[in-house]
Amino acid sequence: MVGNMAKNAALKVILTVALLLIGGDSAYALGDYNYRSFFADIPIEPEREYEDIITIHCTARCFFDRIIEVINGSTDVVINGQSNYELSGRQISIMKKDDYTLELSGVIFVRNKRSKEVKVIDVYQEIN
What we know:
Blueprint: H1 2-23, E1 33-43, E2 53-63, E3 66-70, E4 76-80, E5 85-96, E6 102-112, E7 118-127
Antiparallel strand pairs: 1-2, 2-3, 2-4, 5-6, 6-7
């Protein structure tokens, strides 16, 4: 009888250790965590909104379709196409507004390649 209890206790310890080693982080066992990309398109000149476009990209960690957090350092800002503008500076903040929406705010500085004129673009947009 004492031998069976010792075997059961040893088996419990071995199985518990095995589950801890195999299971890893217990939070990931709750469901499907994934990374999702979010994009925002901002026209440099509103009257020519399809020619000169700034694209802002960021990555967020999600649980199924809900946003958990925005990954720090994952923000990219590019000017699409054959534009007369080049990116000269940016100050962008991307924060989680609710479980399904990101809030993008900040300023982007673009310079005209020909005239060297700098244009300041204020950015405020919600991304779903």
